[in-house]
């Protein structure tokens, strides 16, 4: 099994919702088909043929193509500006799944399981939480943007201290997209709030890294690099503030929180807590 994704992550979760009803429904169906493929693969023995697995993977491929057509039609209907690049991602994902199916007989069931998990993580989970969310944010009216960065309990990693700081980050960002007043007044307030967000994010990352050190988390250095990347992205965003319109700024900030930060919380921060719990159980045996 892939070390970077667990069976729980293959299950559809509310935090994967992009808030486009028809697309969310199809994403959920893709996860269910993927789960079925993994279940069929887990039942294989050394001498089993893979016809049942091929059947479910071909069903997944067929549904994936239908979903992409529907999603592409939606992007056209809202005049999504990054349509062509998104289309290329879809084509690549289809090609990858076709190649996996073509070569399925070359792999034993453990290798197949790993490849399926990696495909689901890279091409379903990451794609939904980054690229598909961008579509939804693009088509969200400015006055409704603050609803996309409201803290929800489903985002919790189940560490009280870390969850509390995550919530503060969301609250500060929400404050930034709730500013009222003239254009000049908004710009002045934004500078103050974004500076506050930047400072608090650095503080939070230091606290989180301190916790990882205290529990001897094995992926500390890798996690620190993720933190550094987020800080660089936020710093570059701050530099652009004087040159972009308020509406564009708000949508870019929502991307930063609803995509970059949330994905980090769900996919990376949860690993820390999962590892910590597993390690404690092993130590008590």
UniProtKB/TrEMBL annotation:
Keyword annotations from UniProtKB, A to Z: Iron, Metal-binding, Oxygen transport, Transport
Q: Belongs to which family?
A: Belongs to the hemerythrin family.
Q: What is this protein called?
A: Hemerythrin (Two domain)
User: Which PANTHER family does the entry link to?
Assistant: BACTERIOHEMERYTHRIN
Q: Which domain of life is it from?
A: Bacteria
| PROSITE patterns, per the entry | HEMERYTHRINS
Which molecular-function annotation in GO is an example for this chain?
oxygen carrier activity
**Per its UniProt record, what InterPro entries does this chain match?**
Haemerythrin_Fe_BS, Hemerythrin, Hemerythrin-like, Hemerythrin-like_sf, Hemerythrin_metal-bd
CDD domains (UniProt xref): Hemerythrin
Organism (species): Malaciobacter pacificus
